[in-house]
Amino acid sequence: MYTFSSKLKTFSFVLMLVGVLGIGYGFFTAPKTIQDVETILASESHEHGAAHNAHAVEIHDVKAEAEHQEHLEHVFHQLQNKPWAALYVACIFIMLISMGALAFYAIQQVAQAGWSPVLFRVMQGVTSYLVPGSIIFFLLLVLSGLHFNHLFTWMNEGVTVVGSKNYDHMIAGKSGYLNFPFWIIRAAIFIGGWNLYRYLSRKNCLAQDEATDNTFYKKNFKMSAAFLVFFIVSESIMSWDWIMSLDPHWFSTLFGWYVFASFFVSGITTIQLVTIYLKSKGYLENVNSSHIHDLSKFMFGISVFWTYLWFSQFMLIWYANIPEEVTYFKMRIEHFNLPFFGAFVLNFIIPILLLINTDFKRIYWIIVMAGIIILFGHYVDFFNMIMPATVGDQWFIGVPEISALMFFIGLFIFVVFTTLTKAPLVPKRNPFIEESKHFHY
User: Residues with Cβ < 8 Å from 46, sequence gap 6 or more?
Assistant: First the structure.
């Protein structure tokens, strides 16, 4: 049985505590009035050596004054969104890591893979974060619907009402789908379905340890097949609802696959890192270099798959140059140039260089380095998907972003490693466990 290291547990608590304090600081320092925004903009202009006359002098023209006020209100909403958006990015990214691991686990069950059963308890440990992670995320969705923030512009008051100053005919045309009651019901169904499968598959796997036949294994096989059908549909809709609808004027038919590739490789990478950590502490004696090599191949292969989708989505939209489509990338290239192209380097070029060599796929320090870069790169990927729509050009990496990530990483470590202490790390009666223990190539 695994014992949760006191040092690691303390580390997770420290991350959560510092994260909470930083998140609170982010909300406390967010502007509360339009006057606060004027002060911030004036300070920024002064710091950059630019005159602030455009905002400081008296404005006589009524139209110009109205535009000025509209600009200030827009920036006000962006800066107020910043701590919320930082929380949202970290929350959804860490939650979807556990979803990526859950999908990978279900695929292993359905494929009746002979190599992976010795890793099932690690996979179940990683997926256990889905429970608290999805609860927190669902609360964030509810708070968005209650107008605690302005993350989703299609939720703004009057946006579907003809004659309102906020009326948007394109969003109004989508209101049959993009409305809060239907949207939150979908979220509840998806999150509930994912957690139900995670709970039942874990329960059956533990029951199989004490069984005299393969009944529980067969139940898991059938349930996993059904879950994967549910998952592929719910994952696509989830990506539209929780990420693409932040940019309600834009759409991409590749988006569901793109989001899936990002969190799927993150989930597999996390399984690998947890496995290597446990191996370094003397656990998982049946996991050998061939298991590590296979996980590394998935890290490498899905990174290439993500790149294919990244390039396909970007190239087709940019080449077609249709205004309502290209604006998505125009915003990111103009105002998020470093993170946008940096994600390509972090998620493709560096993993390719580190993992293309067969021998490198078995060397722990290289795998850990590649894994950390992949996870950071896909956090940046989610940052690129969410921040431009919520904070626009008012972004920067500050206390809210770092603190939110620290909190959820701390919570993830605590939940995952606590779960690992609750059952033996090797399933006893899985039909393929002996094949998995002696897996070599």
Answer: 52
pLDDT tens-digit series, residues 216-257: 999 999 999 999 999 999 999 999 999 999 999 998 989 999
CA 26 – CA 404 distance, rounded (Å): 10
Element (DSSP H or E) covering residue 213: none
What are the angstrom distances between the C-alpha of 94 and each of 3, 12, 18, 58, 74?
24, 14, 17, 48, 29
The residue to which tokens 């996991």 are assigned: 287
Contacts of 318 (CB under 8 A, 6+ apart): 326, 329
| Cα atoms found within 13 Å of the Cα of residue 365, Cβ hemisphere only | 0
Q: Which residues of 33-60 are buried (b: 16+ CB within 10 A; e: fewer)?
A: eeeebbeebeeebeeeeeeeeeeeeeee
Predicted TM-score of the model (pTM): 0.93
Show the tokens assigned to 287: 């996991």
Burial class (CB in 10 A: 0-12, 13-18, 19+), 105: buried
CA 405 to chain CA centroid, nearest Å: 11
Cα first-last separation, the chain: 28
Measured N-to-C along each axis, helices 130-145 and 399-420 cross at an angle, to the nearest 10 degrees, of 140
Distance CA 431, CA 441 (A): 20
Distance of CA 316 to the CA centre of its chain: 25
Three-state SS for 3?
coil
H/E run at residue 438? none
Sign of the CA dihedral 420, 422, 424, 428? negative
